[in-house]
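pinning this so it doesn't scroll away 📌
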Amino acid sequence: MGKRSRWLLWMVVAVGVVGVVATGSNGGAGEGEGKGKVLEPVVTRIAFGSCANQSAPQPIWNAIIDFDPQVFIWLGDNVYGDTKRPFKLFGKERTFGPWKNAPRFIPSSPKELESRYLKAKSNPGYSRLRDTTQRSRWLLWMVVAVGVVGVVATGSNGGAGEGEGKGKVLEPVVTRIAFGSCANQSAPQPIWNAIIDFDPQVFIWLGDNVYGDTKRPFKLFGKERTFGPWKNAPRFIPSSPKELESRYLKAKSNPGYSRLRHTTQVIGTWDDHDYGLNDAGKEFGGKITNQKLLLDFLDEPQDSPRRKQEGVYTSYMFGPVGRQIKVILLDTRYHRDPLRSDGSVLGSSQWTWLEKELNGPKSAITIIGSSVQVISNLSATTRPLFSLESWGRFPKERNRLFKLIADTKREGVFFISGDVHFGEISRYDCATGYPLYDVTASGLTQAVEKAVPHVFSLIVRFVAWLTPTTMRVISKNCRFRSCTYGQPNFGAIEIDWSTAPVTLKLEVKDIVGYPVTGVKFSLVELQSRGSVPSVKAGEHRRHCSLEVNLRWMIKYRLAILFYCSVSALLLAMIGLAYAATLAFRLFLHKCKLD
């Protein structure tokens, strides 16, 4: 896996193996004491505390979790189980003073004490501490046991090649993966609590991991116009490498993200704002320096091939044989040609690499991570009002991607993406012989509804519902009718390997972890059915007809409605002005007559 947590697991496996094979290593140990004994993991951090009132706020757990102890010790007053009576110096029942005749504290009933313990145990901060200390310790022991089995069970892999089945450590089964994008390092990030509660084994960054460029003020008029048809100055300007590095450090030190990094393997790619400049492609001059900064942020090993290649694309394989998940992370920035060029998104070297990856060893599931949307092409239906970056802006490249998946006969493939500041799930049925899903989770802090005053949120949702799309998955389980979500969100993947057939659940979750849109299906549905459905000219078929092929009245209905509304508003204003002028002239005429 290449991360600190994984190296720790390997280290403990090695310790377990040494403990098994090193007999008699305990010096003066008695008979049998040194044989097959597994060494205890070394403890380096212990925390302790006392006096925690279960009814009081307990923010201190965050600091304890950040300390990352292997053991936590309670030293008493773990809850306050007795009842404190009111302070009374005078009266019938005096609980204080020289004339005290009644106890200040009285014991609670066993049932009440039990309820107080349960309240203390369910405190979110304490729950996370228990999860991180107990789970990590049991995980270490589990891997030690796996390592021991791998040492003593020779030839257990059946048809494995020479040396393959000897001492091989089994990969843990991955059942939960979280992903997200668009996290402004200067904004509050409470969403990490929900991600930690989801308890993912892997977290995937899909770009805009920090906002490294600088956004200039909105100016429609003046000397430097950053917006509109007369724009003569860029809206975004790149930051210096030193400033970008400081923003990465700020993001990395976020308490919530720090807790996630201690319990979860983090991998990722980039998008435009952490690449260095909004909407930038291969022409951006700071990409070489910024690549190093991203890889430092991701704790990429210094000898990693990603530090030597042009671009940050990479792949990972998780899980044991038969339950393997391959994650392919694309770089849609380093080699991308300019927008509107219909050129290349990945560049020749990355295309060659991707073909090799898809032709490589099979896996039950293949997740392709793209910083921009692959299936949805909202720009086809929102222009000329505004446009979004996506693979749909490069139709030849997208067709090449779909064809490559089909030609390599890779099954179990779906996409995850970010960038657009809202969440949705798209599906395309006419590419590979089975449905291709694209789960978009954007963003962790940046979201379209947060960009407008709260009173306009309903307008944003109405526009989302009105915008035509042929690819979006519409379900009764969606939070809103449009099945898009414009508040902070993250993506969640759950795989149930215990069922037959294996089931997948793909969801977009809100800031507290509740699903706002999602799909659940069996892995069998992502297996080729042989033939690829086709669409006749002029035919409209959901999840098959591309947005660019919609009838123009449907495709441009958002723009038509907007311009009609603006025209109606202008006519109404002209009418009101005309009516006011007439009324004023009548008033003057009446004054003259009087």
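📌 and the second one:
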Amino acid sequence: MQAIIESGFLADLRDGNIARVDRDEFRQILGLMALTPKPDSLLKFIRIIAIPSTKKFIARDHFVANIKEGARAKISYLGDNFRQEFLDKIEKPAGKNSLRCHELLKPSVDGSIFAELGGEKKVASTLAQIYWLMEQQPNGEDGTMLNDGRWNIFYIPNTAGVLRAVCVFWSGGGWGVDAGSVEFPFRWDVGSQVFSRNS
């Protein structure tokens, strides 16, 4: 905080004509994403989600098809690709972090989404983050993730470290989870949500 005070940034903010400041341009200078989408934008920023710290996360222990009453997160379906590429994954403990959530404004392939979010290295999230979000809506309640059959899209490295698109959707009384190659020319639907690392 002292460094911010000594830098003079706060004095500049105090002295500036707020009516003539473009907030999105100011955010860009700070390295932040715009609040309002550009006219040709694929994504509209929705919110930042705070994620608590996590312990060692063993995917196989958490991602289990189970829609019985009392399940921590009801899961109705695990796709073959997800099972093959992610169930053996073990993630290290992580401190508090956050995700960005965007709405997809146009049908799009993964490459275009990456480009708008700043590249593949900026989008990667974790299985622990997905599972925590599922726990917040264990029975498909309204919440951060879409619960009406539309896609919640995450980008996560598989057990080999290759980035994959992981989609989560509510269906059949539980969350469905599947994965696919980001090279595949599949177009995600308008209204889907895209989650990415907030950094």
